Structure formats: C-alpha cells, structure tokens
Give the backbone structure.
Amino acid sequence: MVFTVPRPLVLLTTLCLSACSSPQSSPERHAKRAVYQLDQAHFDPNTRMSISDSIKQAIPFFDQFYQMGKADRAKGLTRQQAEQREAYFRSAEFLQESKQKSVFMQHEYSADNPQKQRQILLNAGVAAYWDGYEGRS
C-alpha cells in the first residue's frame, strides 16, 4: 500500500514554513556570522557563549558600519575613497581605540584572545560597511 500526500497539503505546508522565515538585514547577518565565529574561537570549556544574546548585542555594532557605508554613498564618496575608509578601519590607529571585553556574571573581563576576536569583528564590520555602501540590505 502506497501512501500519497495530497498535492495542496504539500504546497500549503511549504508556503507556511517559508512564510516563517524572514530575510535578515545586513547588520543582522554579519552579527550572526561573527558571533558564531567568535564562539568557535572561544576555547574555555568552563564557560559558554549565549549565542542569541550575543547576536542581539552585536547588531548595533554592525549597524554603525552599515549606516556609515550608506552615508558615505549618499555623500557621493567614490569607490577609491570608500577603500581608503576601509584602510582606516584596518589601521593601527582605529584598532587602538577598540578594546575587547567579555562579560560574565555582570563583571567585565579582558578578552581571552583579543587579536583573533578583533580580526573577526573587523572583517564582519568592513563587510557590513560595504553592504551599506553598495546598497545591499
């Protein structure tokens, strides 16, 4: 005996499942990707990162880069000027201003691997900047 599923039921189920997934904005995508990479780089077996909370907290950080890219495009900056902005983001002057902290039980601690974390955040931030500059959402 062969069990067949009515075609309208399959179509309705597919539509319902695809309606539940909404497209993410560029800052949300980059925050999610960066947080998962940071979690992979986190080697302490005694603690675990709260992925969903970390993503929510990281979205404003990446939104700053995205909005900066949109603003630069609106100002009429050329691609070469935007590349100079990216070079500034990667410069020692810009990186000195950022300090990596981890929060555990409402206490701040220095990051356990600041260079790796800084590189992950910087790469995702620059990608969000380019999304804003190029008009990708």
Observations:
- The chain has one domain: 24-134.
